Amino acid sequence: MLAKWSDMSLDDMVRECKRLSPSAMAAAFGVHLAIHAVRAQRFRALIPLAHRPGYLPTFAAASAQNLAAYVLPAKTGEVALIVYLKKLCGVPNKVGLSALVVSRLLDVSTLALAVGVASLYLALFEPDTAPRGILLLAVVCILGAAALTALAARGDLIVLAVTAVVRLFKLDRTRLGTKLCERTVGVGEALREAAGGALLAASLQSLAIWLGIFLFYAILAQSLGLPDTLGLAHIAIGSGFAVLSNLLPINSFAGFGTQEGGWVLGFGLLGVGRELALSTGLGVHVFQLASTVVLGLAGHLAMGLLAGSTPTAKR
């Protein structure tokens, strides 16, 4: 379907993927590994000291979960982190869930902030080449980032909203509704505790993660033929649409189709032709999937090796 839509044959797409140089692949994989390292530390920062696992088991669990979240459709693999941290380190489910929710809120808020700042930069310093509506995009993204950061700081408001809906429709009078209300109390407390005192550190780590993600995309896309005239601000905007389409719970297996569609849309707004945008987007996606699989399988292997050393992992 992608080949037909873009007027490209599968041979053309394979040829585009082969254009990646060994040096670009090595550099991109190194950046990807660094992103995983910081991401694991952010999870640890969002877990209270009483339950905080060691770095190595967290890194293994986070890498394995990232593979599940990336490959399985509709973001169903996200919950794997809760299971992995529980089995490997004894982290309570509500604590793992809270760390995951806050980290994802910070991901989206940081992405929105990055796209907003990049859009503002183009509107102010490159107005002649900036697409129409770029200033509006900047304002919307920055305001959205502020709102999402506030929600990350008070994640318990999500629980209060769910409880209010349950009571509004009088579902709390049912057995299932009663259990849901009882369990949300503990989750709300865990969400407050996850963000309390760790939000600044986790926010800075999120910033480092997303700078790494944009650098990862820039290395690969320019090696695949994206014009050198497109700087990091352009990469942030173009790839930001691709990431956003992949974050939504509508993606297919490994995000194929949705990520390319977002990539073509984002870079299309910046004047990149559809064929070039699709060929670079597909090449980036294939390498990203391969890198994620390598790190994810290594994470699963490491979890197997660490499975018998839970007390050490907790220290």
Keywords:
315 residues; mainly alpha; 14 helices
Polypeptide structure, described:
There is one protein chain. The chain has 315 residues and is mostly helical. The chain has one domain. The protein contains 14 helices and no strands. Helix 6 packs across helix 10. The mean pLDDT is 84.
Q: What is the count of DSSP helices, taking H or I runs of 4+ residues?
A: 14
Integer tally of domains: 1
The percent range for helix content is over 70%
Q: Regions with pLDDT < 50 over 5+ consecutive residues?
A: none
- Helix-strand topology string: HHHHHHHHHHHHHH
Q: How many β-strands, per DSSP?
A: 0
What form results from the Cα inertia axes? globular
Which structural class do the helices and strands define? mainly alpha
How widely separated are the two ends?
A: 50 Å
Rg of Cα set: 21 Å
Summarize model confidence as the mean pLDDT: 84
Entry summary:
The chain has 315 residues and is mainly α.
Question: How is this fold's topology laid out?
Answer:
Layout: H1 2-6, H2 10-17, H3 22-45, H4 55-71, H5 80-89, H6 93-125, H7 134-153, H8 156-168, H9 175-195, H10 199-223, H11 232-247, H12 258-269, H13 274-306, H14 310-314
Helix pairs in contact: 2-13, 3-4, 3-10, 3-13, 4-5, 4-13, 5-6, 6-7, 6-9, 6-10, 6-11, 8-9, 10-11, 10-13, 11-12, 12-13
